From TrEMBL:
It is found in: Endomembrane system. The gene is TM6SF2. The chain crosses the membrane at residues 33-52, 64-83, 103-128, 140-162, 168-187, 219-240, 269-287. GO terms for cellular component: endoplasmic reticulum membrane; endoplasmic reticulum-Golgi intermediate compartment membrane. Keywords: Membrane, Repeat, Transmembrane, Transmembrane helix. This is Transmembrane 6 superfamily member 2. Belongs to the TM6SF family. GO terms for biological process: lipid homeostasis; regulation of lipid metabolic process. It holds the Pfam family TM_Tm6sf2. It comes from the Eukaryota. PANTHER family: TRANSMEMBRANE 6 SUPERFAMILY MEMBER 2, TRANSMEMBRANE SUPERFAMILY 6 MEMBER 1/2.
Length: 377
């Protein structure tokens, strides 16, 4: 997978978030939630107009360029928020976290801001750079799509259902486009042609003739997916208040963060159970039986989704903004960390396997009289 160069123009434009946020933080009129929402909408609109005027050619080639440019700006804002909430910087985004979206001050909010300000930011620059040079960015786009969708779905649902439901301000409605963009972006990313592979018909046939026991790496991934599926189901039952002793012990001694009334961890586990659990079963099937050409794409999507989710979940479980009674106990920290880290790494190993050795997932070449006829002509 080729790594596209970063977009210097967007990087420079996104860094304007630093002086803009600092200046707005010292405007006394922004002490009212409605003014915060209106000013935020105005800044994003002006930013979009600036991007459109400076990069009309790129936007004509691929409209997602404008989306990546605006989101790169918001990623820098999110990184500023995270650094400020952890005390590394001061005087930038106090007005927004107090009057705009106070739930960003939670441990979960801080860590999704860290992820957005680092991983998403680099992805935006890479994808925008690929558009500038008319290169493919399909794999980066699929990873971003899964990560972005998981982040916004858990965050918005947790805001509505958790203890911060009474703290929803007008700025909350600025996130509505964030629900629509992944749908549109997903269609465009999936419609892009896949990168060509060097797999010949003979290579595909030879690889697909091998049984699962002859492919030890795939066997290990199938075993991982089975265990990950059980772990996903178990944690889903835990947050649904399953009365068994094992669930009671787990939620009090291993992951008490699942009881936090902010609702983000509960929503996250339910997302896992409803979406990741079926994927584990389907992926195990695709690794066992050849020709499942959908797996490489969806492995990237779920790698992004689970990577973002586990980063936020693990970080929030141990962060000082999480009440002490809901943090991971010191005597079970090692078990918690290893289990959750393996849960995050597995999908990335699956995606890497699918991208590096895709022959097993290609559609099998035609056989019989049709293939013979094609060979003769």
């Amino acid at each position: 997978m080729d790594i596209p160069p970063l977009a210097g123009k967007i990087a420079a434009l996104s860094l304007s978030a630093l002086p803009v946020s600092y200046a707005l933080n010292h405007v006394s009129a922004l002490s009212h939630p409605l003014w915060v929402a209106l000013m935020s909408a105005l800044i994003l609109s002006l930013l979009f107009m600036a991007v459109y005027s400076l990069s009309h050619g790129e936007i004509s080639y691929d409209p997602l360029y404008a989306v990546f440019a605006v989101f790169a700006f918001t990623s820098v804002v999110d990184l500023i928020i995270a650094l400020q909430e952890d005390g590394y910087v001061v005087g930038f985004m106090d007005f927004y976290t107090k009057e705009g979206e106070p739930y960003l001050r939670t441990a979960h909010g801080v860590f999704i801001c860290y992820w957005d300000g680092t991983v998403h930011y680099l992805l935006y620059l890479a994808m925008a750079g690929a558009i500038c040079r008319r290169k493919r960015y399909r794999n980066f786009g699929l990873y971003w799509l899964g990560s972005f969708a998981m982040s916004i779905l858990v965050f918005l649902t947790g805001n509505i259902l958790g203890k911060y439901s009474s703290e929803i301000r007008p700025a909350f409605f600025l996130t509505i486009p964030y629900l629509l963009v992944p749908c549109w972006a997903g269609v465009r990313v999936f419609s892009q042609p896949r990168a060509p592979t060097c797999c010949t018909a003979n290579t595909v046939q030879e690889e697909q003739r091998k049984g699962l026991l002859q492919r030890p790496a795939d066997l290990a991934l199938v075993i991982y997916l089975i265990f990950a599926g059980f772990f996903t189901l178990f944690r889903g039952l835990v947050v649904l208040d399953c009365p068994t002793d094992s669930c009671f012990v787990y939620i009090y001694q291993y992951e008490p963060y699942l009881r936090d009334p902010v609702a983000y961890p509960k929503v996250q586990m339910l997302m896992y159970m409803f979406y990741v659990l079926p994927f584990c079963g389907l992926a195990a099937y695709a690794l066992t039986f050849p020709g499942c050409s959908w797996l490489p794409d969806w492995a990237l999507v779920f790698a992004g989704a689970i990577g973002q989710a586990q980063f936020s979940h693990m970080g929030a479980s141990m962060h000082l903004r999480t009440p002490f009674t809901y943090r991971v106990p010191e005597d079970t920290w090692g078990c918690f960390f290893v289990c959750n880290l393996l849960y995050a790494l597995g999908p990335h190993l699956l995606a890497y396997r699918c991208l590096q050795w895709p022959a097993f997932f290609h559609q099998p070449p035609p056989s019989g009289p049709i293939a013979l006829h094609k060979k003769q002509h």
